[in-house]
Amino acid sequence: xxVIDIIDKxxxxxxxxxxxxxGNYYQIHCPFHNNGNERRPSCGVLLHDEYRNGVLYKEGWxxxxxxxxxxxxxxxxxxxxxxxxxxQTGLEWLKMNVPDFEEDADSDILIPKDIMNQVTNxxxxxxxxxxxxxxxxxxxxxNELEKYRFVIPYMYERKLTDEVIAxxxxxxDAEWVPPxxxxxxxxxxxxxxxxxxxxxxxxxxxxxxxxxxxPKDVTKPLYGxxxxxxxxxxxxxxxxxxxxxxxxxxxxxxxxxxxxxxxYQVKQLKELGMQEFVICCDGxxxxxxxxxxxxxxxxxxxxxxxxxMPNGKDLNDCTKEEFDALYENRG
Length: 331
Ligand SMILES: [Zn+2]
Description:
Elements: H1 3-12, E1 17-22, E2 25-29, E3 43-46, E4 50-52, E5 55-57, E6 62-64, E7 70-71, H2 73-83, H3 90-97, H4 113-116, H5 121-133, H6 142-147, H7 153-157, H8 162-167, E8 171-173, E9 187-193, E10 199-206, E11 212-213, E12 234-238, H9 241-249, E13 254-256, H10 263-271, E14 276-280, H11 285-298, E15 303-306, H12 320-328
Parallel strand pairs: 12-13, 12-14, 14-15
Antiparallel strand pairs: 1-2, 2-3, 3-6, 4-5, 6-7, 8-9, 9-10, 10-11
Helix pairs in contact: 2-3
The chain binds zinc ion.
Residues 30, 32-33, 42-43, 64, 66-67, 69 line the site of zinc ion.
């Protein structure tokens, strides 16, 4: 959709009063408070899709930092029409007034409810300021991913299968030079994707020395969230991507924390609607602490089990038979 055209169309009906384009927003005088007569424009309409902290905000998203209105283009128009007693839905209006309007199949994928509940006016203000000043989230391009699509014997040594390598787009980068260094560190690349399959960043694991690297300042989401099979009710939670992929190749739907877990990942886990989680952290102190923390965080929304990983081991060290036995004895 062309957001600017739609807003201008709405303006021609007298439904909104646009101000100016600022960053990725079209600033408008909010139609939802002060009878649309607010003096300074406090409402922003997103011009293009944006991804922020793991949440996709669709183009046309309205957000007013004065009254807190936050909804999609379609729903916002619906509300405008309703308030004027016009018997037409937002979708009908769009189809009638915007010549090339195409119904977005995803149009009802909005901000998850529990995030929405946290949207206070202060939050909305920060949110709008941050978004008008920073460029939209960019994904790792298909061209870049294409460069890493090699399979090396090391992947098989780490128990990755061809199926898993293809599905998770595991790659190899022989040319990588870590920031601040001069020598190349050949590494395996794991695209970390959002639930829609867009690649947010790469997790790299050096072939020698098992060193993991992530870009600076990223909030780690659940690795593998886009690959959980439909209808999954029991999910395995691992620390590293290698462990999650080993679990998948052994037949267990799994995600990885890319570490020992953060609050954003706990939020994502809660939103999955799982009946059961099985935590499979590494057999060390950090793994035990992470297991306890996750158990406490998740036990109110699902049945939570933990696998007792032997000291010094992780899932990738286990054969399928060994892991099946550990899984059987989860407690
Ligand atoms: Zn408002």
